[in-house]
Design brief:
Elements (H helix, E strand, L loop, with lengths): L1 H15 L7 H11 L4 E8 L4 E8 L3 H9 L18 E2 L1 H4 L2 H6 L1 H7 L4 E11 L3 E10 L7 H23 L2 H6 L2 H6 L4 E5 L5 E4 L1 H9 L3 E4 L2 E4 L2 H14 L3 H7 L2 E5 L5 E8 L16 E7 L7 H9 L3 H13 L2 H8 L3 H15 L4 H19 L1
Antiparallel strand pairs: 1-2, 1-5, 3-4, 4-5, 6-7, 6-12, 8-9, 10-11, 11-12
Helix pairs in contact: 1-2, 1-7, 1-12, 11-12, 13-17, 14-15, 14-16, 14-17, 15-16
Length: 379
């Protein structure tokens, strides 16, 4: 019961951070405590700008954050995380051999001085060139990431992911600077504010367009209804639960799939408007929930991910392959990744065996072959 109350309260805090980003540090502190970690952060990796950013964090020394942004993001094994599925929980040993990790610069110069040893990470969102992820770090006193931590991260991660996605749709500054209706009309997703009985209090332009289509959603006597009976029941239950606060809705989940007559897939996210600062976002006091509906986007794998799957490369082998492309030979790759030249040679030999290449120049040509279709499409 204590854990149930803890996760219920934590879920409410996570969704409160949607409209007040200043809350994220406090939310990360509670997530870190819930999963028995030492520090945490919401971060991103971008393969185009070749940068890493920590947008929100808890219990991380600002000095080391600056060092990370300036130098150490290059050596971070989280560079392999974008090749994991959204929602999977990955520890450091899942990404790179742990002995290799310990001999690298990232561990010796940045991780170890802070007393850290491992981290549980999960991808929240990813695109062709970047990914956002949640990372909860463990120190020596906590031990390595274990099954209990993975299980607890698995309870929290879906709600953090939904909060991040919804947060991209809602821009609090935009809502404060313009009228609420105008702000909603500027959102591509269909947005519906509804009461506990699914009566529509307000819909933006995209939402009205969906209702006019009379496909997967429609309005009947002022109520929002889904064309699919099971989906309609799920939405009705979510709206009813929203009137009782965040806990029940969060535990049941807020993601609902929708399908149009033409087979197109849509995703609906329900956000409660009944507690904290989110009440101020409701256009009328009777609105208890906001429903965001958007076409489900197909995530196109990035070229590195395609290469990894084609040749069954490990995350470390892929890092070495891409580093050869970026910085050159074995000594340069060793310095860039903060590992020994012998370790790089071992991975290069494995790359030769798996790809059939016999020289590093052939590895570069192989990567270029995968990349060229994307270049032509871009032009």
């Amino acid at each position: 019961m204590q854990d149930y109350l803890a996760i219920s309260n934590l879920i409410g805090d996570i969704y409160d951070a949607v409209l007040d980003s200043a809350r994220w540090s406090g939310v990360l502190a509670k997530i870190t405590d819930f999963v028995d970690g030492h520090a945490g952060g919401l971060l991103s990796k971008d393969s185009v700008s070749k940068s890493g950013n920590a947008y929100h964090h808890f219990n991380v020394d600002p000095h080391y954050l600056a060092l990370y942004a300036e130098t150490y993001w290059r050596f971070d094994p989280m560079g392999a995380l974008p090749f994991w599925d959204v929602g999977q929980i990955a520890s450091i040993p899942d990404l790179v051999p742990y002995d290799e990790f310990r001999e690298g610069r990232f561990f010796r110069e940045w991780v170890e001085p802070q007393g850290w040893i491992d981290a549980a990470n999960t991808v929240l969102e990813k695109s062709v060139t970047s990914c956002a992820y949640l990372s909860i770090i463990r120190g020596k006193t906590h031990g390595m990431v274990d099954d209990e931590m993975r299980q607890r991260m698995g309870l929290v991660a879906p709600h953090v992911r939904r909060a991040v996605l919804i947060g991209r749709v809602i821009d609090l500054q935009q809502i404060q600077a313009a009228s609420f209706a105008d702000a909603l009309d500027g959102i591509r997703a269909g947005v519906f504010l509804v009461d506990a009985d699914a009566r529509i209090i307000h819909a933006n332009e995209a939402g009205h367009a969906m209702l006019i289509m009379d496909d997967f959603l429609r309005m009947v006597d002022g109520r929002l209804e889904a064309g699919d009976r099971e989906v309609d029941q799920a939405l009705s239950e979510s709206f009813s639960a929203a009137s009782n606060g965040d806990g029940a809705l969060g535990v049941k989940g807020i993601a609902v799939p929708l399908t149009g007559r033409d087979g197109k897939a849509y995703t609906a996210h329900v956000l409660t408007l009944t507690s904290g600062e989110r009440r101020g976002a409701a256009r009328a006091s009777t609105a208890v929930a906001a429903l965001f509906v958007r076409e489900a986007a197909l995530v196109i794998p990035s070229p590195p991910e395609v290469i990894a799957k084609s040749y069954r490369l490990t995350p470390t082998e892929l890092r070495v392959l891409l580093s050869i492309l970026d910085v050159g030979g074995i000594p340069e790759v060793a310095r860039a990744l903060g590992i020994s030249e012998n370790t790089v040679r071992t991975h290069v030999d494995s790359l030769f065996e798996k790809t059939g290449a016999t020289r590093q120049a052939e590895l570069v040509k192989l990567v270029a072959g995968f990349s060229s279709p994307y270049i032509r499409n871009a032009t």
